[in-house]
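User: Fold both of these, please.

Assistant: Here is the first one.
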Amino acid sequence: MKKNLKNIGRVALSGALVLSMVLCNGSVVSAEKVSKQESVFVNAGADGSITGITVSDWLKNSGSVSGALKDSSSLTDISNVKGNETFSQNGTDMSELNTDNRYNEYTYDFYVGFSKNMGERLSFSASITGEYYKTARYHAWAAYPTAELTYVMTPAHILQLAFTSDKTYPSYWDLSESTGYISGYEEVQGNPMLKPSTDYSVNLNYILKNKYIFSLAYDYEPDLFQQLAYQSTERLTLIYKTLNWDYQQSFSATAIIPFKIGHWLDSRATLQAEYRQAKCDKFFDLSFNHSKWIGLGMLQNNLTLSTQPDIRMELTGLYLSPSIQGNYDLSNVWAIHAGLRWNFANQKASLQLKATDLFNSMQGDIDVTLRNKGQYMDMHINSYSRNVTLSFTYKFGGYKEKQHKPIDTSRFK
């Protein structure tokens, strides 16, 4: 339901902020009725040398499971230090810890829309989509309206005003009832109580001479959900869990300015300033209300290195100032992308070398800081985001590639 007036500069900013440290339920997975908590204790001498390691595994039974519990461990010298329960060790089979989750989800929707031209200068369109969404724990009716007004003062001066709304569903991993253990200290908890979030957006665009774009935008996202870390006050555990916040809102101003130098350089500069606020009154036993001004600068360049032979180069640089994500503070982000293309055989053949994030700086060197009501965490993300591809394309006759709608697999990730 989002239309073409979604702020282009804001899309670029959002793309640079895909840093949510989403951790899937991997490692040892247990059902809600039976769970396992592991802690590792290291004994060290005065010189720092390790003198002993003790691992504590706690199998928790809510009381609804009777009979023997099965677990897998490669530890030796195992003893029960709490209670009178007995155990036997036999192999490392973990099949008894598998879980089988079934999730039923139903959606029913309808759509109504119209458009109207009022003379040669003014046009208006509007639509509304109604939806009924139902799961085992949540059901609700929702309406998602859109409206767009375009006023052509002159061919060189165009105003566009748009209101859009859309929804985002939680991934199936996030809706799982299971808990995944990353280590003896970190765990990932599912949240079957998650509900969809909504995004309401208002955009005012001024288009000058059909190439310069100046935009003002406001976004309001109630029930936004993202995965954040929480340091448990009951046990020595760092919990990653996806929760619905109260809302996230942002105000932004964007300028997109294309320019050319001769016949060899075609560039596009994007500048954006954004004020972002994230609020959640029920984040476990805490709350947060976090806000920050964020700046983005991006320069896209297309260079013609030679016409005979036809060799062209693409070079893009971007910088994003320190930003926020929920109650996190994120360090600045920058990146350089480059590409080289050679067209030959009467423009039928093309050889392209492309490199994304040349210096591995966009997602490969990020500092995450948490300071919120007794919660202190410093995290450094060092992932590999550089990507280099070499491709060859040849067009036979008047062949045109067919467009196929891709299958949406985002909720399975």
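And the second sequence with its predicted structure:
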Amino acid sequence: MRPITQIVEDVMAQAKDYGAEQSTVNMMYYGIFKPIINRHDKEGVSEYTPSIVEDFRAEYEDRLSKHDVSQSHMATVRRALQYLTSCADSGRVDFSRAKKPLKIIASDYHMSLVDECMGSVCSGDGHSDSINIFMRHFFCFIESMYPDCDIITDEMIRAFILDASVKYPKSIGYVMQSVRILTDYLRSKNLLTGSMDFSVFSPKAPPTIMQEFYTEDEVDALLSATGDDPIGKRNKAMILLGYGNGLRAGDVVNLTRKDIDWKSGEIHVVQGKTDIPLKLTLNSTTMNAIADYILNGRPECEYDNVFLTVARPYRPLVASGLSTMMTTLSKKVGVAIIPGRSFHGLRRSYAINLAEAGTELDLISQMLGHQTFECDRQYLTFNREQTFFCAMDFSMVPITTGAYYVATQGGEKK
């Protein structure tokens, strides 16, 4: 077996050739491969040892079950370990995504119909997997409820839609899309009787997802838990950038010292998600926290990124680490750990605070660096005062004429 360091070097070189960003390669090395190399050194072995890699994987799976790491970070770890093990086995990195085995399997005949329909009708719009799943659900339902049928009827399709609406209420859009595509295909093959046009059916609009955010008291509690050591100074500054300026985790870790204009009190960043330049004003609390970290906590190294690791070799942080930081601090002070909130919840808090202060929507959108108003929806659903206003009666509206006035005040119709 080859040395672990050589295998890691091969993985990183092949990842670069494959087109991986340098930041991604660095994250895999420092966050995953370097700890594995250290474990080999600790065990006194230099050659690649599968048991050490599997112990590393098992440890991360355990941390995932305890919510110490996010699902997205765990997915990154699994992919990196796949790259490592495939390179160790064959010398070449397997960059393919593993396909999960099918759980919904109809008869061979009906599965062949699904494959033919998907191949001839679907255009690969990004939802093909979901459409495929509900086509298979459809035929499994038919086989279960109508085992002796040779021809599909409108009544069977309506029965499936009713059944699916109860079992999969959150996926009814995919159900109807699958039905429309499949019925058109079956009709073209003379396998469907009936004239009902299922394209006229459309599900009701899905409910607005109420995204979680951090309250002011929760943010104060998190800040109180950061401490005054270098890690605490760094974490405090990052939390304030998220809460006070709405920066994404990726933009925080990519922030460099030259992005800060100390004279004007502004930061100038190019958003990693949209590539749109953004200029934001720092309040005095955030500026002082950043300055305190740079002067009294930040180690000197070759990188210009503001926020660095505290252990050698010093290097920029990775975005997923900020969500882990929020989980650790939340456990420390008893702030609820809510799935999906993570560091991004600070960005939602920032937008909600602006909305509750009466800031106009177009200005909030600009301050968040969004390209369209549609992107603002998830950030503004918690404006309770404005929501409650929509449900108010007419008691505060000066109505002195008309049918409502006559019916409620006993006045004369004018």
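The chain has a mean pLDDT of 85.
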